[in-house]
Specification:
With 112 residues, the protein is mainly β. Helices cover 10% and strands 25% of the residues. The termini are far apart.
């Protein structure tokens, strides 16, 4: 007689490491609330919320988000708490952070 198969849930990396990141908090992207966890970068919080782009390029206005995820490129630039050109993949999310989509070089006026 065949035994019924039981389904097991694959362990997540957090469960394997017995990580308990603490309670979630909120940041905003263009006024929209986004859930973040302690220790998460802004880019990771945005990815987790299914947000893939948060800046446009200077010349053609093409959408960009995280590319390398480790600070080598500059595709993840965002305006955070009023400061343009912050690398979202390196910047830890903090409760109440205000992230806005960065357009172009992040500064008003012509390119210098």
């Amino acid at each position: 007689m065949r035994r019924p198969r039981t389904r097991t849930v694959a362990p997540t990396p957090a469960r394997l490491a017995r990580a308990d990141p603490g309670p979630a908090f909120e940041i905003t992207l263009d006024g929209r609330p986004v859930r973040a966890l302690p220790g998460q970068s802004i880019a990771a919080a945005l990815w987790a919320a299914s947000v893939l782009t948060w800046r446009t390029t200077r010349v053609s206005g093409r959408p960009r988000g995280a590319f390398c995820g480790m600070g080598s490129c500059f595709d993840c630039l965002a305006t955070v708490n009023g400061q343009p050109n912050r690398r979202a993949c390196l910047l830890p999310a903090r409760p109440g952070d205000v992230v806005t989509t960065q357009e172009g070089n992040g500064h008003d006026g012509p390119l210098r």
